Amino acid sequence: MSVEDPDKVINIIKEIQKDGKISEEMANTCKEKFIKVHQMLMQSLKSEKVLMDESRVLKEKLQQEIQKLEHAHNNKKANEDTMKDLNDKIKNFKKETDAVEDRDANLRHEIENLERDKVNLEKDLRDRRERERELLVPEIEAMKNKIKNLQELKETNEKLITQKEKENTHLEEINKDLEDKAGHKEENEKLSTEYLNIKYEPDRLGKKNNSFKNEVEELEGQVNTTKEEIAKLDAKKAKIEANVAHIEEEIKELNKKKEKKENEKSQKEDRIKQEETILANNGKKKNLLKAERNEVERTIKMLKDDKRSLTETRNSLSKKIEEEKRKYKKTEYQLNNFLNTIKEYENKIGATTKMYEEKVKEHKQQQEYDKKVYEENQLFFGVLVSKRIEEKKMDADQAATKDQIEQLEGQVEKLRDEETKLVEEIKFLSTIREKMARTASQAMAQARETKEELKVKELLILDLNKKFQETEFRLNSFVALYEDVRNARNKYMSLIQNSSQDLAEMKERIKILQNEVEILRNECSDKDRDLVDIKHNVTLAVYKRDSQRAELNKCDFKCRNKQSISGQKVNEGDKLNLIINSLEKDMNNLTNKYEAACGHRNYMGIQLIDRNDELCILYEKSNIHENILKSGEQLIREKEEEIRMLNLEHKERNRQLEVIRKKVPEVPELASKVATHKNELHDAKERVYDLSEKLEDPDKHPIWRNLDGEDPDEEQLKAKIQVLEERLNNKKEMLLEKELVCEEVSNLAEKLRKQALDGRKNTLEIAERINEFKARTTELSRKMLATVSELSMFQSKALKLQEEKDRKEEVLETAVQRLEQGEPPTNDCEIEWERMEKNRVRRIEESEKRRQRKELERQLPMMGVKTHAVPRPNNYMRPDLEIPRPYGGHPPFKPSDPGANMRHIQKPTKREIDA
């Protein structure tokens, strides 16, 4: 006898009534009690099913939430690891930035030193050039004068040499004359000999002798004069030769000095060239250092940006960690509250179980009492009257219990009204709190605005100071611009080269970043695919688990039904009592589980809200990253535009170079023009110098002017001093008055400051209270949301169960109608009946075959041939026959159809077998 069909029990009661063992009233009461008990039992079974389903769903949710918690813990650990890594990176970046800043400072210091050295070297060069010019100009002029003198001496020497040659020719003529005179001497000697020979002839030769004497004396005088002239000429010749040798030595010494000066000049020119090369190298080094400085500044900017981004990420992560800690503390607090509520509910459940056990005992006593009354009723009919009286008493007790229930319901309604009042008070307090928070936030906002305005004004002051310094720096820099313009062209060329190198490096970096982005996108797509596969596998596993659990529940249910049927056949009454007790225990366990699941469900709802907030934060981060990418692309476009403009400038510079190269043939003319202009400039400078000297000396300058006016007397000065002293005394009195006012104002300000500090303390207490009220309101709102969600879940479950009930009732009605019409109740029933018939026919056929086989075995002779050998039909078949061959008891291997997992298996590579 099953639990779900009460008609059998009612029929048994009717049969007992027909036999006359029970009266009609007793039978009716028994029927009513049985129907009530049956209804209670059916409700308990239904509730048990519902609670089992709910417990299964809650277990699944619990497992999911546990997995989520584990995942959150893992994420937390990963976030902590990432935080550590980021902190390490930040420390490394700080070290790198410090090193870069130190290097930048050193480079700046070196650049400043080099610039100072350059300036000093340029000054030294200028001074040296000026000194050398000052030293060399007189030497050059002296050398020029010496060269002129030497040239004059040379000319004079040449003239002297020509004169000497003339004199030599004259001397030769004189020598010739002397030789002639020597001839004359010989003639004189001959004459003297003739004179001696003719001496003794005075008379005859007297006149001739006197004439010859006179001629001889004259000739001797001429000889003496010629000898003196020859001696003088020899002395002059010796002097001239000595002068010529001395002049030649002086010319050699001057040539040596000239060579030395030229060597010194060449050495100085080499030194000047070396210093110019050193200056050029220093300029190049300066440009390189400036380029390195720019690169270092760029790297510093990049590192600062990275540092800012890292600090922002670190702050965001620290904020997240603090939020997670707060949430963790909140969850711990809620968990403690839930545990306390669970303990209270357990105490209540214990009290209700005790009450229930007492009621069960009373029910058993009532049943025993009913049995006794029934026995006595069979013996004594008069006992019925007493039973009716007792039933009336029971009715009165029931009415009293109903009154108590109504009173309790009234108390519950009162408590609900109080709850609504408290909710309204909470709302009112929340509105007050919000107003207070708004006022506080407005005050804080005003204070922040004032602080920001002060900061802005301070920044404006700093900017103005910087602008003032920049203007001074510009004034100083414009003075040095003339010299910087000369080196601008070389600098621009070096900058173009550096920019081209930077451009190439930027392109390479962009390519590297694009490759990294593509790699990350590919990894993201691979991970998305893996995630889809994992989700698919998880859904399949969950589906299999649910199906297996459903089958297990069905088997358990069938087993219980069979056990209940077997127990009912033994003793239906005992079975009903046992079922009630077991149901009560299950109800208690399920209520405990249900309350725990409700608490866990509320906790999970809170976590879902928190996860939704985290999702929103992540979406905001993704939007920020997208904006960063867009800004990066915009910067790349700007850089490309700058590159294009630089290329155009490069082309323009090349064109200018070509124009300059075309003008190269005009360089000599331009050089001559430059020389003329330099001479003009030198003349103009000398004129400026003369004019400045005239301006500085007032005596030399003809223009001067007397100043008008008169010097004041002593009386006037004393009167002015008295007036100024009176004004000073008035100012001192004003200053004392203002100092007194300032002291009063400072005292008042201190009082106001103390009042403000006292007010701040009160505001802190009020803020703490507001936070407490806010926490309470949030807890109450969460509890309300949890109860609302529970109610919505129960409502949805009730609607689903109502739909299932309606559907099953419709199926039952259609089945009854089809049975009345002589049709099968459902198509499944018909199919199952056909299957059962087929199985029955198959069994009959198999039994018939078995019977025929046994008869054949009986008909075989006693010594009939029987064998236990393995049949080998293939051995007796020719290989030429194209017919299917039997394979015996071991069929060949047939591979299964390829499933969804085959895509994860690689195809085997065919290997060649070397014999």
Automatic annotation (TrEMBL):
Tagged with keyword Cell membrane: no
Key word Coiled coil present: yes
Entry coiled-coil feature ranges: 398-467, 496-530, 573-600, 629-741
InterPro entries for the chain: CFAP58_CC
Region (Disordered) location: 166-189, 253-278, 843-915
Superkingdom field: Eukaryota
Cellular component, GO annotation: cytoskeleton
Start and end residues of each Cilia- and flagella-associated protein 58 central coiled coil domain: 364-657
Biased composition (Basic and acidic residues): 253-276, 843-858
UniProt keyword terms in alphabetical order: Coiled coil
Pfam families: CFAP58_CC (PF21771)
Xref: PANTHER family: CILIA AND FLAGELLA-ASSOCIATED PROTEIN 58-RELATED (PTHR32083), COILED-COIL DOMAIN-CONTAINING PROTEIN 146 (PTHR32083:SF34)
Protein name: Cilia- and flagella-associated protein 58 central coiled coil domain-containing protein
Organism ancestry: Eukaryota, Sar, Alveolata, Ciliophora, Intramacronucleata
